Amino acid sequence: MIKTLVYVPGEGIKEGVPFGNIKEFVDKDSCSIWVDLEEPTEDNFKILADIFNLHPLAIEDAKTKFNLPKIDEHVGYLFIVWHDLLGSSGLDKMETAEVDIFLGKNFFVTVHDRKMKNLDLIFDHCKQAPDFMSRGAEWVLHHLLDVMVDGDFLLVDRISNEVDELEDRIFEVPTQENLKELFLYKRQLITIRKIAAPQREIISVLLRHETFIERHAYIYFQDVADHLIRIVDSVDTARDVISGAMDIYLSNVSNRMNEVMKKLTIVATIFIPLTLITGIYGMNFKNMPELYWTYGYFIVLIVMVSFVFGVFIYFKSKRW
Amino acid sequence: MIKTLVYVPGEGIKEGVPFGNIKEFVDKDSCSIWVDLEEPTEDNFKILADIFNLHPLAIEDAKTKFNLPKIDEHVGYLFIVWHDLLGSSGLDKMETAEVDIFLGKNFFVTVHDRKMKNLDLIFDHCKQAPDFMSRGAEWVLHHLLDVMVDGDFLLVDRISNEVDELEDRIFEVPTQENLKELFLYKRQLITIRKIAAPQREIISVLLRHETFIERHAYIYFQDVADHLIRIVDSVDTARDVISGAMDIYLSNVSNRMNEVMKKLTIVATIFIPLTLITGIYGMNFKNMPELYWTYGYFIVLIVMVSFVFGVFIYFKSKRW
Amino acid sequence: MIKTLVYVPGEGIKEGVPFGNIKEFVDKDSCSIWVDLEEPTEDNFKILADIFNLHPLAIEDAKTKFNLPKIDEHVGYLFIVWHDLLGSSGLDKMETAEVDIFLGKNFFVTVHDRKMKNLDLIFDHCKQAPDFMSRGAEWVLHHLLDVMVDGDFLLVDRISNEVDELEDRIFEVPTQENLKELFLYKRQLITIRKIAAPQREIISVLLRHETFIERHAYIYFQDVADHLIRIVDSVDTARDVISGAMDIYLSNVSNRMNEVMKKLTIVATIFIPLTLITGIYGMNFKNMPELYWTYGYFIVLIVMVSFVFGVFIYFKSKRW
Amino acid sequence: MIKTLVYVPGEGIKEGVPFGNIKEFVDKDSCSIWVDLEEPTEDNFKILADIFNLHPLAIEDAKTKFNLPKIDEHVGYLFIVWHDLLGSSGLDKMETAEVDIFLGKNFFVTVHDRKMKNLDLIFDHCKQAPDFMSRGAEWVLHHLLDVMVDGDFLLVDRISNEVDELEDRIFEVPTQENLKELFLYKRQLITIRKIAAPQREIISVLLRHETFIERHAYIYFQDVADHLIRIVDSVDTARDVISGAMDIYLSNVSNRMNEVMKKLTIVATIFIPLTLITGIYGMNFKNMPELYWTYGYFIVLIVMVSFVFGVFIYFKSKRW
Amino acid sequence: MIKTLVYVPGEGIKEGVPFGNIKEFVDKDSCSIWVDLEEPTEDNFKILADIFNLHPLAIEDAKTKFNLPKIDEHVGYLFIVWHDLLGSSGLDKMETAEVDIFLGKNFFVTVHDRKMKNLDLIFDHCKQAPDFMSRGAEWVLHHLLDVMVDGDFLLVDRISNEVDELEDRIFEVPTQENLKELFLYKRQLITIRKIAAPQREIISVLLRHETFIERHAYIYFQDVADHLIRIVDSVDTARDVISGAMDIYLSNVSNRMNEVMKKLTIVATIFIPLTLITGIYGMNFKNMPELYWTYGYFIVLIVMVSFVFGVFIYFKSKRW
Fold first, then answer.
1. Is the confidence at residue E49, as pLDDT, over 70?
2. Which residues are CB-contacts of A77 (< 8 A; sequence separation ≥ 6)?
3. Rounded Cα distance, B66 and E110, in Å
4. CA A303 from chain center: how many Å?
5. With an 8 Å Cβ cutoff, is D305 touching chain B?
6. Could you please report the per-residue DSSP string of A256-267?
7. How far apart are CA C185 and CA E67, in angstroms?
8. CB distance E251–C253 less than 8 Å?
9. Nearest residue on chain E to D259, judged by CA atoms?
10. What is the mean pLDDT of the segment spanning B26-32?
11. Fewer beta carbons below 10 Å: N end or C end of chain A?
12. Burial of A229 (0-12, 13-18, 19+ CB in 10 A)
């Protein structure tokens, strides 16, 4: 699906200019063009390359699915791969949507495979704001990145809070389920960090290109970079919390094991010797004098009770 | 709540100048202004931006809660996010108070959400010291940072000592409670480190701005940076101690487990075979010659005692 | 085995020029030569050194088997050691094939010990494409590296997917076999990373040599470097997944051990005391009043059942 | 306690010049002054600041106890915090003595809280060597650092050897005591490393100050830095040894646990079933035909012995 | 023991020139001198310092035993500490031989405490090759380093192979002996890495000294550096293999422990309840109706067998 938006000075925003007719506006520096391609076809790519004069390798990259954000610097335009975190249902893997961006002096092309809510939002906003479009493609880019990064920030914040709560719960009663949740959050956080860290680099590279980004916009892109730094930092803090919680969990498991073993040992140390005694007097030898003593049975019972007390006192003195 | 302090050369300190009237002093370079906003309203921010001509993004940052200190360099002023460690009741999470600072050539604005004792202290001091205010906004900033960092230093020192004591205790008798305390201290130390390390960077950035910081004040800011280095170092040392203590704890747990298992094994190895013997002579077969021997019972008893000695000697020789 | 390919402007591609006759084309800058040596003999090397005027140390290196890729800069040519991942049958060690490359202004020499499918592919392509050969040796090099790196990429992708699946399986039912597979994949990934990371460096070094690589080819080599970065990144992600899966496995093992121990302790705590009771009433003392009670046996049975319930309730209340 | 030493060209060494009279020599560049303050009073500091024109912050630092060495560059002098390792009685914490040094063009001030043998040694040497004092303050500094670092070196060497021996012992018979010793050595080594690493940096900074250190002395300070590098390296090697020894210990503990468990399991697997058999024939049922067989008892004994052999062979075949 | 070798242009190699007479050749730039001192005496050092005008600190260093290679740059000569790996008998500590080298424009001095085969080899070679000596001291140095590094390379290769085999064996049957071997190899590898890594640095420093190393020799020294890189890389790979093998071993130990515990638990869960049953019917109560049932005994036997089957099915269903 192709959506186009062209700002022509004096004429305002033109929506839905046929893809093939875009070319005539490209050479007019005062125009501002946004072409959005969702699930583009091979043909679309060919026309796209033709209109904006894009390098075959850049087109190739736009067709490829990338795991990591990147920026390539071409003559006349920049090619940016950016990822939007889509969140996750519960504790599943973090899903991301990739958008490939071509940023020229007066054009802004977005290529993506799945519907992206944030992108549609900005597109609708631009439609109704000729003033905004007139400021140039870099302001549209900033707006898009800003909205996406803000969404990421909320997501990371939510995960951080849940991890904090989880840590507290593990401090109280560590269960195997808590541990699994920890691992799943960790997996999500790793995904986020892998994307947010290079995104910050991309902003730095962007700011080196005065042709595409006007001076006035610098502080705004810097602001996005700041948000990314805070995201990375929150992720790192959350991972510290997770690894601390895992240490707590593991030390707790071995402690509980210790307790279990102690109980077993106490039970065995008390009852096995007693059973031996009963075994002795359960033997059928004809000549066992004790068996014929009047109080033999009671003496044995007393001996056994004394033994239990003795072992108890022994273990108490050893602070078991 | 808004508090203002204006030093006018020749007239001394004016306290409580209405917020709206501050603007007239801003353009006079020889004046020195301190505006302190506690829990500021939206309106306050608007007036603030207007008076000191602050960038919308800086105002936006001043409204936001940050986890980490940072410094932003704007035209005409610096924006600093600083955190004061409030200590913690017992072993809870370390609490921090954030203060956002605008430092201009002749003005000093502090924005914070909760009452800050250290800040009030400096404010009261400035009120009574026109000489001090007359030296410029950077000296007020130094004074504020110095007091806060000194407080942090004492806090870290206290934690370090407690961690050292804890390590000694774990060397003696490692308990699960000691381990929990270690984790809690570690959590506090991580919080401190996260704040102190970037604060040091902030001082370095500050010293690059000759417009705002006069040469003469350099060595004093350097002194604050030195304190921060020592804080970070103390934190690192304490974390080393903690991780050493955790190693001791864990190796101790597995040792004790070993001991417990050995005891259980010794008990089982001694008593289970003996029980078998008594079981054998407890069987009811009609034809069991031993049962009719005169000394059968006593021979069995002797065999059993010999067995116990044998096992004992065996385990001794294996150094159990 | 020696294969040669010479492009002479105006005459097109000449295949199978005898090794000894190559020398006459070397000095003609407009020619383009590819010499491929498979399992070269000492003699071959001598002739090779003579034809292209190669340094003895470079020849020495071409004879040596290297574990890591490298690039050496000589006067008049570059010497490159490159490795092609051959994949692995199942989970065995990752096999690699080494190809040593001499890249001059107008010649391209490949030396290798085993048959290399990718290399033959490119060789056959060049044979039929005089236009391609005419562009220069660096384009042949790019083509070769591109094909090899693309193959590596598919390989890494396959391993990544298998590791992901393995992780899921370990989350469900961790078995010792899964763990072994993890270790084997890890070994393969380490091999890949050891090769891919320096290969990226080699591309960077290549791009510093304007004599050998024409400006126009830069973006194409950069594209290969991009692929290598993605390979390294995929490997790192897969290793993160593996180490996460190992943590899951290990925590699971200690959990299961805990469960086993608990079961053993419960069994022992319930049955050993009961056995003691039966032992007591199995003793043969003449004077044991309980034995003669009418309901003695039934009382004992009731006591034993009550005990079992008591222990059950106790363990339940402790959430075992 | 204050000790002074002044070298006046032509007059030689003057010992014990009253503290108040030192000032008259300071301005004479050809003089060479050493003032040593042990446990200085507030008054001493005031006079000191006055005589050598020291900055209040430097004086403040001289009063403070530092954990780490540092160097501050002031106008007219350098301020150095250095630590001498005092060794340790047995395995206690490593003790250090701090000496604060002011190094000017022609003066050398040492401030310390406890008696320092090494310092007294150099002081006594200087007293009797006017030639040495005449070369300048930097040579005195070098001499002092050299002696202290040499002492540290011997200390680290001794610890390294003890750690090596300990490793060998742990390889033979790992005991809990050995592990504790390891931890204690590790603690000492961490302390040493924390001090030696920044001391090396201090020498580097020193060598940047041509005003205070004459060219000719460079190689001598470099020699001290070399010693510090070797100290840091020895510490790192020793820590590697320690962490290796800890791995050995821990793997050994789990191995021994394994052995203990195996023994227990073997004992249980052999004797518990046998006890069951005796239990069966110890039951008092009237109708138990086997009991009346002539060889019933002997058959049971043979069955039991066979069982023992069977289990033995089973465990052997499993290589327990 | 002192050995000397002097090349005089036109006269060839002179062997055994008395130590005292060396000085006359030093000033002739066209001469080439090699002095080899084995276990030198104090006197030797004094004469050496005198002949080549060596700095006291360099002489001091030549007397000292170093753990790490290093290079010092003096006026007129370089001082190099190099270590030759002597291999190890079996798995003992890796032994190294230290050689201290003074490299001047036309002289080459080697000082060492133990006989060094490699050095004698080169010495003998030089004796018979006046051409070689005539090229200059740096070529002798290169030759010596090359031979020593080649030896190290073979050594590392052998260890790598043994570690690989060990890993395979641990995959099959992990034993405590295998683990010990791993630790011993690791210790050897750490020693090698500690020496090889700084040796590479030394080559880099050497190449910065155009006075001592002629341009033409650069590529040869670079070749030695390449070998050192490959040694370091092989060591790192081997250490990766070792740490992977240790993970395998440890996970295997806990798995086996798990298996042992399961076996014990199964034995206990099956036999202890059965023993209880026999205990019950072994009690001597007069009034126990079951005892008088005709088939009581057989019913109990059937119950017991059913119980065994029940537990079996239970454990099977739990996949034990």
1. yes
2. A52, A54, A102, A103, A104, A107, A212
3. 63
4. 65
5. no
6. HHHHHHHHHHHH
7. 38
8. yes
9. E257
10. 86
11. N
12. middle
Q: Which of C276, C284, C285 sits opposite A271 (nearest CB)?
A: C276
Tokens read off for C227 = 């692929």
Q: Is C254 on the interface with E (CB under 8 A)?
A: yes
- Residue B174, classed as helix, strand or coil, is coil
For B117-157, the pLDDT digits (tens) are 999 999 999 888 888 888 888 899 999 999 999 999 999 99
E189 phi, psi to nearest 5 deg: -65, -40
**C264/A183 Cβ within 8 A:** no
Instruction: Find, in chain E, the residue whose alpha carbon is nearest to that of C74.
Output: E219
Spatial separation of the C-alpha atoms in residues E214 and C63, rounded to whole Å: 27
Tens-place pLDDT, residues B36-93: 999 999 999 999 999 999 999 999 999 988 888 999 988 889 999 999 998 776 667 8
Query: Please, which residues 49-108 of chain A have a Cβ atom closer than 8 Å to chain C?
Result: 55, 57, 60, 66-68, 70, 72, 74
Answer yes or no: are the C-beta atoms of B235 and B156 closer than 8 Å: yes
Across the interface, whether the CB atoms of D230 and E274 are under 8 A apart is answered no
Rg of chain A over Cα atoms, rounded to whole angstroms, equals: 35
Which of D193, D264, D285 to probe the B interface (max B CBs under 10 A)? D264
Mean of pLDDT over chain C? 89
For chain B, the helix, strand and coil percentages under 3-state DSSP, each to the nearest 5: 65, 15, 20
Task: Report yes or no: E278 at the D interface, CB cutoff 8 Å.
Answer: yes
- Could you list the beta-strand ranges (E) of chain C: 2-8, 12-15, 32-38, 70-74, 77-85, 96-104, 107-112
Q: Is E254 on the interface with C (CB under 8 A)?
A: yes
- Shortest distance between the Cα of E12 and any Cα of chain D, in A, equals 38
Q: Do A186 and C284 touch (CB under 8 A)?
A: no
Task: Give per-residue pLDDT as tens, E198-247.
Answer: 999 999 999 888 778 888 888 899 999 999 999 999 999 999 899 888 88
Residue E35 has pLDDT above 90, yes or no: yes
User: Above 70 in pLDDT, residue E89?
Assistant: no
For residues D274-282, give the mean pLDDT: 91
For an interface test with A, give the residue of B64, B70, B98, B183 to mutate (most A CBs within 10 A): B183
Taking residues C232-244, report their average pLDDT: 91
In three-state secondary structure terms, C38 is: strand
Which helix (H) or strand (E) is E216 found in, with range? none
For E267, the closest chain D residue by CA position comes to: D269
How far apart are alpha carbons A81 and A98 in whole angstroms?
7
Q: What is the pLDDT of residue D89?
A: 67
Q: How far apart (Å, rounded) are the C-alpha atoms in residues B196 and C212?
A: 51
Give the burial class of C41: count Cβ atoms within 10 A of its Cβ; 0-12 exposed, 13-18 middle, 19 or more buried.
Answer: exposed
The gap between the terminal CA atoms of chain A, to the nearest Å, is 72
Report d(CA A212, CA A111) in Å as an integer: 19
Positions of E strands within chain B: 2-8, 12-15, 32-38, 70-74, 77-87, 95-104, 107-112
Split at pLDDT 50, 70, 90, the class of C20 is: confident
Rounded to whole angstroms, the Cα distance separating B221 from B103 reads 14
Q: Tokens in use for B69?
A: 């200190």
> How does pLDDT run across C122-153, given as a tens digit for each residue?
999 988 888 888 888 889 999 999 999 999 99
**Chain B residues in contact with D201 (beta carbon < 8 A):** none
CB contact (8 A) between residue A250 and residue C255: no
β B77-87/C12-15 pair status: unpaired
Nearest to A158 by CA among A222, A73, A88, A211: A88
pLDDT, position E97: 92
Candidates A241, A282, A283; nearest CB to B297:
A283
Provide the token pair at B22.
């501050």
